[in-house]
Amino acid sequence: MRTALITGGTSGIGEAAVRAFVAAGWRVIATGRRKERLDALVAELGADKVHPAVFDVRDEAARDAALDALPAEFSAIDLLINNAGLALGTAPAQSASLDQWKTMIDTNVTALVSLTRKLLPALVERKGAIINISSVAATYPYTGGNVYGGTKAFVHQFSLGLRSDLAGTGVRVTSIEPGMVETEFTLVRTEGNQEASDKLYGGANPMTGEDIANTLLWVAQLPPHLNINTIELMPVSQSFAGFQVARG
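RE: above sequence
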């Protein structure tokens, strides 16, 4: 039985991925800050299938303590899914919050590379896989996307760099880059503004966490000689914006 570590397993894509991988016969280490949500997943899916690791991905000491305490049956990790991440604020750069920018960088970039580096030796030994969750914001800029888009562009490029460095090891690396997915993403970004979330997703028939989780599972279960470098997904309703022109 293979084991996956999925960060951000308490909601959205991460929570859906925990369920999808367990249903497919994997063991899952689910990480997140909200202990009650992880405990609920364990109660639902079974302690033999899901191990809760409660920590903020930015807290390296808490992360290391949680990983050092893994039960033996969960200690051999075959797959790392770097899903934890967030967007904060929608203001243009000139009026955006620097603290929010730093939080996005600390979460989406620094924590991701730190956890990846920690697990790389074991993943190389097991010829495992890494799946990083980027975003279409890595490629297509939009007003207010500034640092969030920059962090996701980093995840895309970091994934390519990992692929290059890991050539010959058997480790697979994939960047998954979704567009509009209806999760708690907009609630977090707008500090709990349910109206803003409803307005964004209303009538758009967006993708779901389950849609992305099924994509993650498909990538993870491909034959070991196949590597998916990048997958970009959008709902049919979403497409590319035109150029904007400011006129005097």
